[in-house]
Sequence to fold (385 residues):
Amino acid sequence: MYELKEIHIKGFRRLRDLRLEMRPLMVMIGANGVGKSSLLDALNLLSASASGRLNVTLNKTLGGITDVCTRGQSGRLDLAVEMALSDQSPLKYELGLETKGYTYRVAHERLSQDEGKGDPSEPIVHIESSYDLIQYYDVEKKRLVKANWEPNSLESTLSQIPKMFKQPEEFRQILSSAGQYHLPDVGRNAPIKLPQPMRPADFPGANGEDLVSFLYSLRETDRDRYERIEDTLKVAFPDFESLHFPPVAAGMLSMTWREKNFKDPFYIHQLSDGTIRFLWLISVLQSPGLSTITLIDEPEVSLHPEMLSLLVDLLREASLRTHLIVATHSDQLIRFLKPEEVVVLDRDEEGFTTARWADTLDLGDWLADYSLDEIWRMGPMGGRS
Fold:
């Protein structure tokens, strides 16, 4: 059993030096530009470093290292995460990047854990890299050895170390599985509205490109999980009856939505934006392919306020199977959360990001008379402009 315990980010946009305890459900609130999306992006970059996508993610997705390094600082970016194990001491991973002209280099990397019964001042070091010196722990030789492959200097050692070494490989698989999601495009020709192949799918796709394939596959292979999705839709939409998957071409399916008061069904492209996005969201949260770490930006968009209580229930249920980290601007969503589920982001006097769990703030007297969203609007918990 693996569990994220802490994240430490230095030099990433406004996150000059941010250390934060990780919990199974983390809903971040704060003003525009305070750093919510940056925290999601930093976690996504850590995941990319574990999967061999560091260069692509940093340069193509995030615009290059000079765009993400904290302005006016050293041109250095450091990311670290601690992961607890059920029967061993925690794993600690550190990754340091430096600007090098218009590109970057991996300046430092370390994967270690304290000895379970030994002296914690002498940890087991699985990876130790500094610039061109790349070392990893060889279990047969029982010591650090130099890399015997030609390393890619723009990717982490973690993504390149031989897969035979159990601890680094298990950690790599978990960290690399993190998924970052924005609500899907629901325009006229969006992938989520088009016919999809009749094929096995264990996830609806980051942009809904496999939503129909996923739901059809789930109905055929995991009826209980599929029925939980339909039951959720019946709670959210009282007139909803069932989903169907008519073939529209050789090997291609569409999806229809049946309601009590209409003889003819609605095809997926005829549903409202909010309905489609809610269907995609609950499919993601119920998916057997849900990653160990799930990052979602503004899940409340397009949803009616009365559906937000149901959304919070779905988030809590999913957080039993994934580390769920959510960014929101919705005070109506916050109404249904507990202080121990909310992270408040603010700016310090110099404009850099601070983060505090709401249950560490002095809100006891306020909570006796007001709901959490009211306290947020009135200002005592921070997170306002």
